[in-house]
């Protein structure tokens, strides 16, 4: 599996504390089993809260907002939110993006953190998250370029 950004993400502070958003729509691609799928995160609609790294790991690898951690969190967070891909794939995407930034050891530690039981809690979405997803989908449906968001925001769930 290979993962890459269409352009490097440009993060900015979000409206909510401890969240980041994007200066522009953020696109990334995943090539898996010979098929490439493009995914897009909308600007001004969705905010990420960093990688699902349990607080116990922060002294070793930094907070979810450390620039090296945000690289992998960019696809990881919306995948955990939408379940557009299986959890293992969301975690592997993060690993692939952490690898060039942190080296093999750093990427493995981050991957272990998101794969931990505490990281698994972030995969479970409740009524609040489902309502937020419905709101995001409504905003995206109003956009003329809604088609580019379908693979991530309107995909079947892998619950």
List the helices and strands and how they pair.
Layout: E1 2-5, E2 11-13, E3 20-22, E4 26-32, E5 35-41, H1 58-61, H2 67-82, H3 87-115, H4 117-123, H5 127-141, H6 150-153
Antiparallel strand pairs: 1-4, 2-3, 4-5
Walkthrough of the structure:
It is a single chain. With about 160 residues, the chain is of the alpha+beta class. It has one domain. It contains six helices and five strands; from the N terminus they run βββββαααααα. A three-stranded antiparallel β-sheet has the order 1-4-5. Strands 2-3 form a two-stranded antiparallel sheet. α2 (about 65-80) crosses α3 (about 85-115) and α3 packs antiparallel against α4 (about 115-125). The radius of gyration is 15 Å and the shape is globular. It starts with a strand and ends in a 6-residue tail after the last helix.
Q: Provide mean pLDDT, rounded.
A: 89
What is the domain total for the residues? Answer: 1
Can you count the helices? Answer: 6
Task: Give start-end ranges of low-pLDDT stretches.
Answer: none
Write down how many β-strands occur, each being a DSSP E stretch of 2 or more residues: 5
Largest sheet: 3 strands, antiparallel
Q: Helicity level, as a percent range?
A: 40-55%
Strand content: 15-25%
């Amino acid at each position: 599996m290979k993962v890459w950004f269409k352009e490097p993400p440009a993060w900015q502070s979000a409206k909510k504390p401890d969240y980041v958003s994007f200066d522009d729509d953020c696109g990334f691609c995943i090539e898996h089993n010979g098929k490439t799928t493009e995914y897009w995160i909308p600007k001004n609609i969705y905010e990420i809260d960093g990688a699902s790294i349990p607080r116990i790991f922060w002294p070793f690898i930094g907070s979810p907002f450390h620039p090296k951690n945000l690289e992998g969190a960019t696809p990881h967070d919306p995948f955990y939110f939408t379940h557009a891909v299986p959890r293992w794939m969301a975690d592997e995407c993060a690993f692939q993006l952490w690898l060039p930034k942190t080296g093999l050891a750093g990427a493995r530690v981050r991957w272990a953190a998101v794969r931990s039981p505490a990281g698994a809690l972030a995969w479970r979405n409740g009524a609040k998250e489902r309502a937020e997803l419905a709101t995001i989908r409504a905003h995206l449906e109003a956009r003329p370029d809604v088609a580019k968001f379908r693979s991530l925001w309107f995909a079947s769930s892998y619950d």
